[in-house]
Every structure is written in C-alpha cells, then in structure tokens.
Design goal:
single chain; five-stranded antiparallel beta sheet; 20 strands; globular; binds copper (II) ion
Length: about 290
C-alpha cells in the first residue's frame, strides 16, 4: 500500500505542475475499483502566480474509531456499470486509508489578502465511470472550466444543487463531455444523478487557489501561500467542519493535521438550515462538528 501511494504521489508531483489532478475517485477498502480506473490522485489547486517567500501547509486528516462500512449498491439495473465492479461496490461517503480520511475539503477560509485570482487554464474534471462519480469530491476555482465526462456510455443526468451559483441539470445519454463553470465561491455544491439515485458527489468552488481535497491516506498540501496567519477549514460531508489557526513564516513548510472521530455522532445539518461550508467564509462562523 505504501509503495503504491509513494508511486501515486511521485506521479502526482510530476503532473501537478501543469494540472489540477482531477482523477481522484478513491474507493473504499474492499471495493473492486473499476478496471482501468486511474489511481487516486491528490487534488490541489493549480499553481497561482508565484508568491514571494511562499509557505506551504501540509498535513493529514486523521480518522479515529471504526469507519462505517459502506452500503452495498445494487447496480443490477445497469449491467454496463455492474460489470465494472466484479467484487461489488459500496457507497463512498467515508473513505479511510491507512488511518487517514479522504475526500475532506481543506481550504483557507480567513486571512488571505483581498485580491482576485485568475482561474487556472487547466480544467477540473468529474467523470461518471461505473455509475460512480470520480472523484467523489471535486475542488476547483471560480471561472475554471469543469469538464463533465461520461465514461459509461449509458444515460447519466448530472444535476447540481448550489445555493449561490446557477444550478444545472445536464443529460448525457452517451459517451461525451460537457463543460461548465461556476461564478461564485461555494464550497459544498451537492451533485446527484437523476437516473441513479446512489450517485452523489460534491463540487467545492473557491475564489482563490488555496484549497485541496485529502487523498492518499488523508494527506493534503496547500502551497504557494503568502506568509501570514490563516484560518484553515476542513469539511467532510458526513463528519462536518473543523477549523484551526495557523501562522506561516516566510518559506516555511508547516504541518497541520485534523482529526475526525468516527465514534462520535456525526451532526447533520438541520433540514432547511444553511449548509455548513456555504458559511465557512471570513466573518462568518458555523459550529464545528462536535
Ligand atoms: Cu447516473
């Protein structure tokens, strides 16, 4: 496992210089990954313009307790997808690998200088592959293109349910690509498929390039940060929001870990309440999970 991850990370370093690695799609332990699926890749923002004395924040999202078993998904209604999961397939809200929680969105929520950041030229990407969204969590920037792929070649209908951006609802009846962008920051846009009710994902959109999604055993890295003091927010769809303050000196690399306790009762937002991360912005606060 560690060799595999080391390879993945090495590969990622090569790719990351030019690309927002959008090939995530971590699978829960025990699930047979779709044949030919790309290995999980750590997602982080595309490089912004170089910052003087840039600092780097890195860390691991740790998970204590017993991860919940995924719920088996019955894909017998879609043979094309079922055959991509010969060992069966489960829901993937909670992915824990080597004690690290994956698909956690980590981002600077306070402390950045007020400025506008140009979107990266490289598109973010979400694929529908084996009737699963890959990656499960997409992190991207305002104005950046999102390429929506349908690798299955069967009908998918991708629907976003934002509160700040304009929603879209796109039918993709065959193998094809569609592009969309988002106009304003919104770190927790739910995504679902109207054809397959088990398909869920999240798109996290930021108006700056200082964000990541944990992968490869819960690891994340946010680089090219101006030295300063920041509030860092971590958000997981089941376990909620956590924040920490960090001060980064010139050229400093600092480790900042977060820990989610799987034995604690996850606190779901009240029905109709504002969604957690939609308010995780400077000047607002939302109760941390537990
Ligand atoms: Cu679908």
């Amino acid at each position: 496992m560690s060799n595999r991850m080391a390879r993945v990370e090495k590969l990622f370093v090569i790719v990351a210089a030019a690309a927002l690695a959008a090939c995530g799609g971590s699978r829960p332990d025990g699930e047979q990954a779709a044949s030919g699926a790309a290995p999980a890749g750590e997602q982080k923002a595309a490089p912004a313009a170089p910052v003087a004395d840039a600092a780097t924040l890195t860390g691991t999202i740790r998970f204590t307790g017993t991860p919940p078993a995924g719920t088996p998904i019955d894909m017998s209604s879609e043979p094309v997808c079922a055959q991509k999961h010969p060992g069966g397939v489960t829901t993937d809200e909670v992915v824990v690998d080597d004690g690290g929680l994956e698909n956690v969105v980590v981002y600077v929520s306070e402390g950045l200088p007020a400025q506008t950041y140009a979107p990266p030229a490289q598109p973010a990407e979400i694929d529908q592959d084996g009737c699963i969204y890959k990656p499960h969590v997409v992190v991207m920037q305002v104005g950046q293109k999102l390429t929506i792929k349908n690798a299955d070649g069967i009908l998918h209908n991708i629907k976003t349910k934002p509160t700040k951006n304009r929603p879209f609802n796109i039918s993709q009846p065959t193998t094809m690509e569609t592009a969309r962008t988002f106009d304003v920051a919104e770190p927790d846009i739910p995504v679902e498929c109207n054809v397959h009710n088990w398909m869920h994902a999240t798109i996290a959109v930021f108006d700056h390039p200082y964000f990541a999604a944990s992968a490869n055993g819960g690891k994340y890295t946010i680089g090219n940060l101006p030295p300063g003091t920041y509030t860092i927010t971590a958000w997981h769809e089941k376990y909620g929001t956590k924040t920490q303050q960090v001060t980064l000196g010139p050229n400093e690399t600092k480790t900042l870990d977060f820990t989610y306790d799987g034995n604690a009762t996850a606190r779901a937002p009240a029905p109709g309440a504002p969604r957690v991360a939609a308010h995780a912005h400077p000047g607002t606060s939302h109760g941390a999970a537990r």
